[in-house]
Amino acid sequence: MPPRPPQFTTRRRAELFDRLVELFLAEGFAHLTLDEIASRLRCSKSTLYTLAGSKEQLVQAATVHFFRNAAVAVEEKIADVTGPRERITAYLAAVGVVLGDASEQFMEDLDGFPPAREVYERNTEIAADRVNELITDGVAGGVFRDVHAAFAADLAATMMVRIQQRAVHAKTGLDDAQSYRELAAILTSGISV
What CA–CA distance (Å, rounded) separates 186 from 193? Predict the structure, then answer.
């Protein structure tokens, strides 16, 4: 049998990761064995081993896959949004929507597994940097009052980390998606001219 073309392998891997992420988002991952994952994805364990060498590596790779796709989806959501205030609101709301697909179990498992939590933390840092850019653009455009953009972004980042660490949920009962929408409303109202 001739080897499969590289695009098939890549497409197949992406499809498997998409299905894996869907499973993890819906049910979490800590309780699942590799046998259960393979059964649920209707593939063999050896197929899973082509994605990663262990369950831990598979979870980490799936988490990276999720956040990579999430970043693309968030940027697509704000691509046509023109006003700085609207861009920040759309950006944080889009982050909330993407995270809205994650079950409570997934978020708990993510927080309890350091390699996956580190992926979430790194993506939170990237999102905070993006908020800083959006605020700086708004200040330069006169839409936002002359705030220290890095401070405002750091304030947002602090809240984003608290959201990621589940502290906001514990204190308020808001899920991550709701928390990001509230953050967007408070942030843009507070810095508007």
Answer: 14
Q: Report the alpha-carbon distance of residue 112 to residue 56 in Å, rounded.
A: 12
- More confidently predicted of 30 and 100: 30
Q: Could you read off the pLDDT of 80-119 as tens digits, one per residue?
A: 998 888 999 899 889 888 888 888 899 889 989 999 999 9
Q: Which two tokens stand for residue 20?
A: 């894996």
Spatial CA neighbour of 143 closest among 153, 134, 156:
134
CA distance 87 to 77: 9
Residues facing 192 on adjacent strands? 144
56-191 CATH fold:
Tetracycline Repressor; domain 2 (1.10.357)
Q: Which helix (H) or strand (E) holds 108?
A: helix 104-112
What type of residue sits at position 19?
A: R
Phi, psi of 51 (to 5 degrees): -90, -35
Residue 27 confidence (pLDDT) above 80: yes
